[in-house]
Here is the input.
Amino acid sequence: MDENHQTFDDVAEVYDATRSLKPEVMEQVLDVLVEQLPSEEPILDIGCGTGRFLVPLQGRGYDVYGIDISEEMMAKAKQKGVRNVCYGDALDIPHPDGKFHTAMSVHLMHLIGNWKGMLKEICRTTREQYLSVVKGPKFPPYMDIYAEEARARGHPEVVMGILENQLSERIEPAKVILVDHMVEHFDTAEKLKLTRDKKLSVTWHVPDEVNTDIADSLEKTFPDKEIIWEYDLSIMVWNVADIRAWLEKN
Ligand SMILES: C[S@@+](CC[C@H](N)C(=O)[O-])C[C@H]1O[C@@H](n2cnc3c(N)ncnc32)[C@H](O)[C@@H]1O
Here is the structure.
């Protein structure tokens, strides 16, 4: 397990309000997602959080299971009626070999330094495919801006693992399905508040006083800054067999 789990407990209260896709975009994502999921087969959402995907998939009749290491995030999922959610680490998935047809994770792999260990667990528990809903190909601009400020202050590592999107640079996905091309205007005031409150994962590996210094610096430049992020919102699907073959060589 990595050392981030405590911090997501602190984020649970604001997670849905600050990280969700707009409802109409989420509907688009779900319409594409369900085309990739056979209706009779069990599906695992690793790092399911507040149930952003479990809730609508369960609602559409899927046999979905979630694991997470944050009790507070999972409590939100349970409040929303998610049935099969339990404490579990991506590096030690508490389910038997070959139980799932599909495993998915969204916005998780960048938190896991040992992301290859997570892939091994996916290969152990999952028969057919692993998928993710990704934004790419570039890094989210706010992460970049923050990382640059942290680097300048002697803290080069603010992201532990890789984005799910970046897995495609190592293992060829079986499918990449474009949901939509998006143009997002960042709410810089909101990002700044989340930064000060250390509710963004990029802030967790930086000492408090350095984080405050970065927030002070961004506060000076942000009023004139419009951060626009243009990205492809896609669903990437990998065959478990391809992941297994890659792990054998890497
Ligand atoms: C950014 S949130 C994403 C939540 C959800 N997948 C979504 O897209 O809304 C990351 C989640 O992964 C969980 N997490 C972090 N490290 C984990 C690990 N090693 N095993 C399982 N879950 C983990 C966190 O507790 C958090 O709920």
In short: Residues 1-2, 4-5, 8, 46-49, 52, 67-70, 73, 89-91, 106-108, 111-112 surround S-adenosylmethionine (CB under 6 Å).
